[in-house]
Every structure is written in C-alpha cells, then in structure tokens.
C-alpha cells in the first residue's frame, strides 16, 4: 500500500510538472505570436512570465527588443546588458546599435560611445556614431534657438506634423476626443485625424477643432501639406492592405489630395503612383507644385523607408526619384519638409543621431543632388524622437513634434524661435 501511495504521488508530481511546462511553453508561444505581428506591449508580459521559470537567451533578447519598441528604455537597457554579459561571442553590429540606441535615449552618451567602439571596423556607422557621441558630450555652445511647448493645443496623446494653414496650424492627433472612434489594433488608441488650431494670437492658437469632416474618415489621416495659396491639400491616409506578405502590417499608407472649392474640400485625387503592395505617405509639396516629396518603402530603396521626389512637367508628376544615399540610409527616413530656400528637412532614426528619430537638413551640391546633411543638435533634437520640422519663410520661427522629457503627452508640438 505504501509503495502504491508513493507511486501515485510520483505520478501526480510528474503530471503537475508536465502541466506547468505546457503552461510555461504557452507563454512563449503567445509571446512569439504577438512579437511576429508587432504587438510588442502584449508580448512583454508573456515573455516575462516565461523567463520567470525558464532561461532562454533568445527570449531575453526579444523581451529587450519589446521594451525598446514600447519606450521602456531603462528596462530594455537592463535586459540587453544581461544578454550581452552572457553572449559575449555572439554579439553582432545590429545588436550593438540597438543597445546603444536605448542608452542614447537616456542621454547616456558616454556609455553609448563605448558600445559603438565595439562595432566592427567595416561597419558603415562606426566612425559617424562615435563622432556624434563626442559632439553631444562636449558641446557647450549656447544655441541660437529656444524651444517652447505648445501646451494650449497639445493633449496627453500623440500630436504630430504641424504645418501653418492660414492663421493657424493644421496637425495630426490621435487624441480620444477626435471625431472618429475606431481604434488601431496595434496601439489600442484612436486613429489619427487632421485637426486645426486657431486663436486670436496666431502664434499661440488655443482652440482646436476638426479640420474637415470630408477628409477625416474611419482610417488614419495625417501629415498635411498645402500649396502656397492653401487651395490644395495633400495628406496621408491608411487603407486596408490585403496583399501584404507581412503579417504585422494591417494597412498601407496612401497619399491623396483635395481642392478647396465652394467653401469645402472636394475634387478628390489619389496620388498617381499609389499601389496595393507598398506604402506612400508624408507628402511635402513645394508651394507652386513644382516639386513633390514623399516617403515610401517601395522596392529599390536604401532601407526601411526612403524619401523620393517627383517633378511637375506639363502638370503631370514625373516618376519618383530616390534622393540617394546621403539623405536615405538603411534605416527610416520620414517627414520631409521643403523650404523655399531649397533646404530639405527630414527625420531619421539612423544610429548617429542623438537618440531615436532626429531631424536633419540637407542641401544640394553643384549637380543638384542632396549631399550635405546636417544634424542641428540640441535643442532642436533630443535623446528621444524629434520629427516633422516646419519653418516659416524667414526661418526664424518653426514647429516640430517630439516625445522628449517634460512634454504633456506622447508626442507634443513645439515652437522653435531664434533668440533675439
């Protein structure tokens, strides 16, 4: 009888262990499934539960990547450091760049520089990243600019891509009180709509309203660009993407335009190069509609998303031309803005920036190609994401968006002015 009881207890323990193992493995399976479709916030608790009972370097690395993707940089740093300590001989350049990125986003430029120094001698970004960290560390020159949060129009959510429209600002926001209540499956937040801010003081608008009920829909609408007379608007809209081979991509971005006629936006046009397999967005039209810049992940680019330009000939756009390897990189270039003096502004998450996305300016060489790319540094850029620059004609006043420390929400709109 005693042996029978012991046998039964052993069987129960074995069964319990099997159940626990199955339950643990399900956390990993769910975490991987969420990771594959880029639901990083949902993957985190699954990976955390799995790692409490199992050791897995592969899972640890995915958890670090998830923390980085959702902006939990201190946690990402800790997990990357743990992974690096265990996998000294398996660290490649891509991992070093990801780890250094979370260090820079916490303004730990000395630590980031030490990581960049471990990059292989053949890594394209090695010298640039080290020099950038040095410049961020030793720069003490007083800036010519001052930055101010546009607190009267910002929300606790994401407010991005401000552009001047008449006597106010048009910008994009996913704030809860927007007209459209449909939510993005990736973020569980309302979709972006175009909003208009105006007020008695055009520099400090304080009243926000829906830009147009004819433009805003149940999809994303963002990143407006206007002709000089404000009679044509170009904007980005998300559409269903049924032909994508990427399971994590729920929709694609396309570009549209509308004309101001009879006191309303009408005469809808789709950008001639839109297709069903790639994204086209972030339009930036030159005031007289002679140049048209945009962002796309079309084949033949240098990396994630590249910036392209079309020229207007006989009122038709030429085929898109990639702006080349000085503007574009193996990373993401977005939010182009063309100034009337010929300078192109854009944002990029290339690793030689201050952290996250930085804003850059590019000017042309003698052949008319954009070659001279400059990072203006602080306070225009910060350790976090700085995007969607807009300058007035005199370039003494501008606007941009950032999720830097001290803001009101996810991304806030900032004014930038030249000091007197």
Structure notes:
This protein is an alpha+beta fold and 420 residues long. It has 2 domains: 20-138, Tetratricopeptide repeat domain (Serine Threonine Protein Phosphatase 5, Tetratricopeptide repeat, Alpha Horseshoe); 145-418, Neuraminidase. 26% of the residues lie in helices and 30% in strands. The protein contains 7 helices and 21 strands. The chain has helices at 2-36, 40-53, 57-70, 73-86, 93-104, 109-116, 126-138, and strands spanning 145-149, 159-165, 168-173, 193-198, 207-210, 221-226, 232-240, 251-261, 264-270, 280-285, 291-296, 306-313, 316-317, 321-322, 333-338, 344-348, 358-364, 370-374, 386-391, 397-402, 412-418. Strands 10, 11, 12, 13 and 14 form a 5-stranded antiparallel sheet that branches. Strands 1-21-20-19 form a 4-stranded antiparallel sheet, with no helix packed on it. A hairpin with a 5-residue loop joins strand 15 (333-338) and strand 16. 39% of the residues are buried.
């Amino acid at each position: 009888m005693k042996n029978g009881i012991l046998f039964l207890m052993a069987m129960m323990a074995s069964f319990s262990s099997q159940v626990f193992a199955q339950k643990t493995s399900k956390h990993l399976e769910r975490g991987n499934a969420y990771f594959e479709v880029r639901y990083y916030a949902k993957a985190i608790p699954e990976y955390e539960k799995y790692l409490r009972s199992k050791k897995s370097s592969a899972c640890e690395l995915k958890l670090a990547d998830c923390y980085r993707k959702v902006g939990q940089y201190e946690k990402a740093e800790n997990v990357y450091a743990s992974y690096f300590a265990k996998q000294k001989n398996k660290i490649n350049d891509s991992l070093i760049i990801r780890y250094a990125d979370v260090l820079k986003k916490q303004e730990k430029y000395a630590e980031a520089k030490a990581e960049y120094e471990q990059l292989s001698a053949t890594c394209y970004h090695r010298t640039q990243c080290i020099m950038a960290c040095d410049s961020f560390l030793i720069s003490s020159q007083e800036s010519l600019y001052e930055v101010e949060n546009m607190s009267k129009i910002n929300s606790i959510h994401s407010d991005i891509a401000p552009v001047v429209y008449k006597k106010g600002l048009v910008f994009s926001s996913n704030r809860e009180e927007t007209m459209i209540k449909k939510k993005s499956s990736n973020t569980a937040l309302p979709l972006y709509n175009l909003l208009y801010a105006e007020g008695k003081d055009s520099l400090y608008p304080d009243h926000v309203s829906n830009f147009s009920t004819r433009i805003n829909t149940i999809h994303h609408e963002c990143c407006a660009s206007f002709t000089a007379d404000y009679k044509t608007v170009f904007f980005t809209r998300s559409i269903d993407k049924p032909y994508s081979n990427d399971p994590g991509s729920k929709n694609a971005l396309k570009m549209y335009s509308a004309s101001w006629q009879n006191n309303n936006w009408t005469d809808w046009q789709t950008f001639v190069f839109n297709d069903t397999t790639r994204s086209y967005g972030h339009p930036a039209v030159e005031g007289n509609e002679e140049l048209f810049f945009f962002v796309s992940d079309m084949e033949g680019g240098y990396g994630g998303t590249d910036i392209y330009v079309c020229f207007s000939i006989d009122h038709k756009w030429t085929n898109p031309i990639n702006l080349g390897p000085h503007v574009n990189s193996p990373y993401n270039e977005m939010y182009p803005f063309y100034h009337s003096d010929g300078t192109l502004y854009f944002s990029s998450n290339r690793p030689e920036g201050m952290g996250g996305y930085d804003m850059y300016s590019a000017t042309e060489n003698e052949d008319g190609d954009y070659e001279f790319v400059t990072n203006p540094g602080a306070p225009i850029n910060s350790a976090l994401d700085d995007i969607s620059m807009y300058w007035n004609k005199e370039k003494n006043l501008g606007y941009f968006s950032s999720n830097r420390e001290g803001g009101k929400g996810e991304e806030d709109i900032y004014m930038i002015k030249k000091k007197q």
